[in-house]
Each structure stands twice: as C-alpha cells, then as structure tokens.
Amino acid sequence: MVGIVGSVLLLFLISGTLNLIMVMLGAEEEEADPDCYCNDEISDLQDQLVDGQPLYQHLAALLAPLATARKGKTGISSLGIVAGATWPEEAEALRTALVDAPFLIPGFGAQGAGAKKATSGLKRGKHGWEGGLINSTRGLIFPQKAAAAGSLDEWRHAIAETIAENKTILNGVF
C-alpha cells in the first residue's frame, strides 16, 4: 500500500503541486507572479529518468494496470490523475498510458493554459470532450467580469458568464 500511496503522491507532484508540497515541507517560497502559476521547476522532478523513461511516464505505466482493474460499467476507471494543462505533451503521453483514467486538469485560464493545451489530454467523444474535468478555480472565484460587482448577485452573474464563455472557448477547439 505504501508503494501505491507514494506513486499517487508523486503523480500529484508531477501535476504541478510541487510549490504546495515544498511549502508544507518548510521550503522557502519565492515571490510569484500573481497572474500566472507556471510551475516550470516541476520538470526537475518529473523528467528524472527511471528505467530509461521520465518519472511521470514510469509512474503512469505502474498505475495503468490499476486503472484498468478499476474500470466500471461506464468504461471509466475509478482511479484518476491530475495532469496540468500547462504541460500538454505530458498530458498526451499520460492519456496514451492511462486510456480510461479520468483526468483533473488544473491550469486553464489564469494559470496560463489556453483551450488547446487544456484539452490535450482529453478524448474527442460523440458529444464533445471526454475523459476529464478542466479546472479554472481562480478564473471562477475572481472572474475579471466581477471586478465592478456591487452585490452578490452581480458576482454570481459574472461567474455564470465566465463559465459560459469558458465552455465556448473549450468547445471551440473541438
């Protein structure tokens, strides 16, 4: 069980949460650009070679049989991963290894990834993008349209407009 937990933890590290883990471990936090969360230093970890392949691919290969074994009636595995939208080539490689795993995809919008990058690890299905959930928390909590909101209803309206716009943008690359 420790190996699986370690693998999952490392997979979460690979996804772009290294800064959070470093803070939890007491590492010094550098001054960050508040408008961009581009986790370039993660390549120091995820690109380390293990048995001749990058660590993230090695972990995906270890997780693939577990994901397949946990595939439900819908054909989707109950084992999901986090694949950052700012790393589209890696998301594509992860999708190849983890065909039926759902992806949580942070990094769209305020964190720097556009629609094409955010959808790179998804599959084109009958009704649109399938295989994951694209996350844009900062863009929804603090939407630009809400800058002049004078009430909670105006804030909610700005969030609803932002969601509609994001859907249009994401579906525009389908």
β-strand number: 7
The oligomeric state of the chains shown is single chain
Please write the string of helix (H) and strand (E) elements.
Answer: HHEEHEHEHEEEHH
Structural class computed from helices and strand pairing: mainly alpha
Shape: globular
Sheet of most strands:
3 strands, parallel
What is the rounded distance between the termini? 39 Å
The side-by-side strand order for the widest beta sheet comes to 3-4-7
The parts where pLDDT drops under 50 for at least 5 residues are 1-37
**How large is the share of residues in beta strands?**
5-15%
Query: How big is the Rg?
Result: 17 Å
- Give the averaged pLDDT, no decimals: 79
Number of helices: 7
Helix content: 40-55%
